[in-house]
């Protein structure tokens, strides 16, 4: 059984489609660009960025103070951390009144030993002696103010 092929000539219909696409393309491009509109949009985005940065700053300060308050009242303190490799660390922690050395890896925590309190060097930090960013920066660089 032979198949019959039907051909329809749509020359005028295809021309209408092409004309419609061309017309739509020219209509979407603006006739003139306004410099003041562009500058106002840029200023609006800069103001929005500044607002976001300020909100992020105050949010991080609030969360930091909240977490610091939780850590002060905790029975567990991390005294020191030494990174052995990318995913392995050696930690000295204080649980209640005991010091413990543990090994921490990606999926595992291993008890190593208990350490006497006299053998542990702790770094005391007084809250009254808050240093400015400049002082900390010069300490790291090795310079004095």
Shape, please?
Answer: elongated
Query: Helical residue percent?
Result: 40-55%
Radius of gyration: 34 Å
Number of helices: 3
Report the biggest beta sheet as strand number plus sense, adding barrel if it closes: 4 strands, antiparallel
Mean pLDDT: 80
Note the run of SSEs as H and E. HHEEEEH
Distance between the termini: 99 Å
User: Could you give the count of β-strands?
Assistant: 4
Low-confidence stretches: none
Q: Which percent band covers the strand fraction? A: 15-25%
Given the helix and strand composition, which structural class is it?
A: alpha+beta
Strand order of the largest sheet: 1-2-3-4
For the structure shown, list the relevant keywords.
alpha+beta, four-stranded antiparallel beta sheet, 145 residues, 22% strand
Describe the overall structure:
By secondary structure, this protein is an alpha+beta fold. Among the domains are: 37-74; 75-119. Helices cover 45% and strands 22% of the residues. It contains three helices and four strands. The protein has helices spanning 11-28, 35-72, 133-141; strands at 76-85, 88-95, 98-104, 109-115. The chain has a four-stranded antiparallel β-sheet, with no helix packed on it. The radius of gyration is 34 Å and the shape is elongated.
């Amino acid at each position: 059984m032979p198949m019959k092929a039907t051909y329809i000539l749509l020359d005028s219909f295809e021309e209408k489609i092409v004309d419609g696409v061309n017309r739509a393309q020219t209509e979407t491009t603006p006739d003139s660009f306004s410099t003041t509109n562009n500058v106002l949009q840029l200023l609006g985005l800069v103001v929005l960025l500044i607002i976001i940065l300020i909100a992020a700053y105050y949010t991080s300060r609030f969360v930091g103070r909240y977490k610091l308050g939780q850590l002060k009242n905790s029975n567990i303190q991390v005294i020191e951390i030494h990174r052995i490799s990318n995913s392995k660390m050696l930690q000295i922690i204080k649980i209640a009144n005991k010091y413990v050395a543990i090994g921490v890896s990606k999926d595992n925590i291993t008890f190593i030993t208990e350490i006497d309190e006299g053998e542990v060097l702790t770094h005391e930090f007084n809250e009254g002696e808050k240093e400015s960013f400049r002082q900390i920066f010069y300490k790291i660089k090795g310079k004095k103010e």
